[in-house]
Write the structure tokens for this entry.
Amino acid sequence: MTIELPTHSVVYYHEDAWAAIPAVNGDNGPSWQWGNELLVGFIRGTFQGVNPGHQCREDRPFESWLSRSHDGGETWNEWRPENYVGQLLVPKPPEGNVNFSGPGFVMRVVGNGYHGNEGAHWFYSDDRGAAWNGPFDFGDLLDHPELAGKEFTGRTAYLVGDSNELYLFLSARIRTDPSGRDLQISLVEKSFLVRSDDGGKTFSFVSWIVPWDDPCRGVMPQPVRISKTKIIAALRRKSPWNHWIDCYQSEDNGLSWSYLSKVENTEVKWTGAYHNGNPPALVLLADGRLCCCYGDRSNGGECIAARFSEDDGQTWSVRHVIREEFQSVNGMADLGYVRLFQRPDGKCVAVYFWCSKERPQTHIECTIF
């Protein structure tokens, strides 16, 4: 039997740019996918490779960009959209009447974080990301008793019900340090589910995915729908001693959640858990398996990896490394934040940020496997 090795392509690279964190800037397939047409987002900043830490100038602006492939990830074209994230636009009340099941619908959520993301608002496009509407706020959602007093940190993850119905997976935290970067903030951040049934005019709190009183961080959920009532979500977890990915499941369409399984550590314990783990990308494959793809920031073992489940996330296969030989110009193991798609021919496409011997500046790459 001949085993086909993964192939790689460059999504976006410029020697003077820092391009990163696609998982903060868009959704997995099939939400941002139309057959072989794939859409991903990323943050573009100004490169610096001398100082420790992120390879970007924190004193220079950050911009939200998009990149599109029409051939299943083989080639890409990038651009900076107009009327979009990071341009200090003032959100307005949602208008409703959004057709969530429209053939060109995509949605982008913006929450408080870093690298150009702040506020609590959302944008949508009905032409596959060519033009955008927004930003819109979330109405009185953040006044709900479960969310009042917490800081909104949502990224983009959703499931479409019908033309008027959307399940939106978000997160919130309690800020204890104005810098927003200490461990305590990370541990008091959790994910929750909201629902709109009126085309985005209102959003209602449904449930916490990881309980608020859980002592560990649980954020950046990636949901897949298994049946009419069953949803599985993979989440990024963090404790003072470890970083890993968990799966939770709901049997009642998101009203309640229970722990399902651990997928993998994303930074081995003996490295001191210095970085911040990595978020999962999760898709339901055409053959019924789940595929979870993620970055591993372990010292000396940096890679992009995937695991598969044949039983709806109860157990997971051995780890398959699809990208290795990471090499950064300043030595920081900053990588991953995968977006994941499956092409019509069955191959998977992972998009992530990376550094290589040929391109040691942080940039966006794609692996087809």
User: Anything to note?
Assistant: The chain has a mean pLDDT of 92.
